Structure formats: C-alpha cells, structure tokens
Here is the input.
Amino acid sequence: MNLVLLGAPGAGKGTQAEKIQHALNIPILSTGNLLRQAIAAGTELGRKAQTYMDGGNLVPDELIIGLVAERLKSPDCANGVIFDGFPRTLPQAQALDRAAKVDVVLSIEVADETIMQRMSGRRTCPQCQASYHVTDNPPQKEGVCDKCGAQLSIRHDDEPDTVRSRLEVYHRQTEPIKEYYGAQGKLKKVQGQPKLADTVKLVSEALGVSL
Ligand code: AP5
Here is the structure.
C-alpha cells in the first residue's frame, strides 16, 4: 500500500507513521528526515535545503522530487511506502502520481493553536528521528530516546516564529492538494485528538488496520 500522510507541521504525521509502519511492515519516507540527514552529512543538497528549512519555507520542488525518486529505487520500497511530509505542493503530488500509485491519503486535522502548544513540548531524537512530547508522549527515561538511547533535542525549526511561518506555508501551499486527492476519491480525514491514543484509534479505523 502507498499511503500519504497529510497534515500541518506538528499534526502528528511522524508519530502515526511509526505506528503504521509496524502494522503494515513498509518503510516510512519522510522528506523532512531525509533533508535533516543530508544537512547532518554536509551534502550539497543539505547545504541548499538548510536555508529554506531554517526559515520555515519549502525546499524547491525539483530538489525534493529528485530526493524521493532516489529513495523509491530502494528494494525495500517495492511493497509500498508511507509518505510523511511529501507531497507538499501540487507539482510534487503530480510527480508522485507519475512515480507510484497512491492508494490512500490520510489527512490529520489539527487546529493551529493546538500545533503552537504541541511544538513547544516536542523533543526529537537526532539519531533515529523518533518524536516525543514532554507531557503527551514522553520517553521512558527523561531526555533519552526509547529506541536508540541517544539524547533527545529540540528541533531547530520548532522556535515559535518559525512554526508560525511553517503553518502559513502549509495553509497556502500544501492544503490545496487535499482538493487534488479529494477529486481522485483517495482522501480520508481524521481529527487529531488531545490524547495520542485516541488519534491512533481513529487512524486505525480510517485505514482498517490494527495499530
Ligand atoms: P518535516 O520534518 O516534514 O516537518 P513537518 O511537516 O513540519 O512535520 P513535523 O515533523 O514538524 O510534525 P509531524 O506532523 O510529523 O508531527 P509529530 O508526529 O512530530 O519538514 C521540515 C521542513 O523540511 C519543512 O518545513 C520544509 O522546509 C522541508 N520539507 C520537508 N518535506 C518537504 C517537501 N515535501 N517539500 C518541500 N520542503 C519540504 O508530532 C508533533 C508533536 O506532537 C510531538 O511532540 C508528538 O509527540 C506530539 N503529538 C503527536 N500527536 C499527538 C496527539 N494526538 N496528542 C498529543 N500530542 C501529540
């Protein structure tokens, strides 16, 4: 199954993607994580992407489409992929349609005020990219990743001003693609809930898989 997760920054795409990955046994393709890895590795793509990301803006389509095309060549993508953070523009959605058959698009809907509150509590693993929240989804040991034991940190683009810019960019550039997928009959919507377990339940029902 090729599944696209849509939603504002901090809506919970990465958190749900991890749960779905275990249930469906297909990889997550997170363009945000691929870009952060490229920045950490000091590649040319990483250098180009960093300025856009630090400002809360989208990285140009041609860079992202090339990045995704490369990742999709890996054998582990043969049985399907969970797309997290891609596509984010109409040209990206059209490029994805040329590269793979999208089966379902799940939009996680969360109000902007809730996003602003959530992002201030997010902690991320710089090594395996797992996402936590200090009160709503804490790691077993404070400040330490449950999965790989690395020290958790606050993401560079989670500063309140940058989150505001990312939300504005989301509403202007990404939300319109809901209409594109709606017209194809592939769009499902889930209301993000205050409690993580409640959102997981709704996602599970929407996809018809046990999470
Ligand atoms: P990216 O890394 O994709 O960031 P994003 O979409 O802004 O999404 P986030 O990772 O911030 O949030 P999320 O929805 O995964 O939420 P999470 O599960 O962590 O992109 C970063 C940047 O890269 C972009 O700004 C752009 O510059 C560039 N980029 C990436 N892809 C691109 C593309 N395709 N085109 C162009 N540019 C691109 O959850 C957030 C927090 O909430 C966590 O703390 C979590 O524990 C908590 N939480 C989650 N669900 C719940 C719940 N139900 N209740 C309570 N807390 C919850």
Remarks:
- Residues 86 and 130 are 18 Å apart (CA to CA).
- Residues 160-174 form the longest helix (15 residues).
- The mean pLDDT is 95.
